Amino acid sequence: MELNDIIEFKSSPLITQKLADFGFSKTFTEGETILNENVYIKAIPIVTNGSIRVMRTDEDGREILLYYIKAGESCIMSFLGGMHHDTSKVKAIAEEETEILFIPIDKVSLLIKEFPEWLDYIFRLYHKRFEELLEVVNAVAFKKMDERLLNFIKKKCDIAKSQTLYVTHEQLANELGTARVVVSRLLKQMEDQGLVKLGRNKISLL
Questions:
Q1: What are phi and psi of 109, to 5 degrees?
Q2: Helix 169-176 and helix 180-192: axis angle, to 10°?
Q3: Which of 22, 60, 97, 204 could form a Cys-Cys staple with 107, CB 3.0–4.6 A?
Q4: How confident is the model over 79-115, as pLDDT tens digits?
Q5: Sheet holding 202-205, edge to edge
Q6: Alpha-carbon distance 20 to 36, whole Å?
Q7: How far are the Cα atoms of 18, 25, 51, 55, 181 from residue 160, in angstroms, in the given order?
């Protein structure tokens, strides 16, 4: 698939040609760390195939999922950190085998000056990520864990384009920022209610 078909630019294909010229591609395997917290950002990632989950870790090592980045999207946190020569405040992990086009930071500024649609792309991403972060805050503050867990499973199934997830209870707990025993108990309740079917490291939506 052409880069111009993946990224939604309302313009000529010139900007996508510039991205292809400036950038370099790299493929990551499922579960591989793409970006760690507290490291300087030297290039902006644009997902061309696959998906990324972006996590935040507290000082005790507990993690919580912030949002997913799908094909045609980038990480606004990387934009902000890179443009201000700051370190990353998040961790990015490949949700599946993922191909990424990395745009060096110095080229990002050139693109902003030359292509207004590039700035529009950044603002659209910022708006989307902000809404997703509001959803996380809303879920943590107002929703019960069983509702959060079921919605989370549905979202992961949607990204995987499958009704079955191959994931451990420990992984789900880490991404939701809770304990494994809580996730296991709630999943058993959901199975009793006919919402899911559980297998070994496998959860199927019914």
A1: -65, -40
A2: 110
A3: 22
A4: 888 888 888 888 999 999 999 999 998 888 888 888 8
A5: 164-165, 202-205, 196-199
A6: 25
A7: 30, 22, 9, 18, 25
